[in-house]
Amino acid sequence: MFFLKRNSKKPQSQSDGTQRRKHKRILYTYPVDMIVGENRSQRSARTLSAGGLYLAAPFELPLDTVVHLRIGTENRYRFIEAYGIVVYNESGQGMGIKFVRISPEDRKKVQAIIEKSWSQEV
Hints:
The chain has a single domain (25-116), classed as predicted glycosyltransferase like domains (Thrombin, subunit H), CATH 2.40.10.220. The chain is 11% helix and 43% strand. The chain contains one helix and seven strands, in the order E-E-E-E-E-E-E-H. The longest helix has 13 residues, at 104-116.
């Protein structure tokens, strides 16, 4: 009998060295409030895409943990709210979080940030 273990690393590179990603990803270093159950902490985003973000954190959360996110923007009084799940961890570095619930309005905000960004795709 074979068991498949979910990969806790970043998506695999293709043979030509490119990543298999669905969405353009940009550098993004704004604060993010991360809420898991009753626990709340502020971390910093490292990258952002229409599908999710990479969050810097010195700890790991189990894969598939549901996380409530309040993502900072250049206007400190406005934020993007989303729910996501942890899809991979980098021990002591951070975690990849995939958006699973985000309003159409906030999804448009994310897309506008990506389109206006001077940051190269990463």
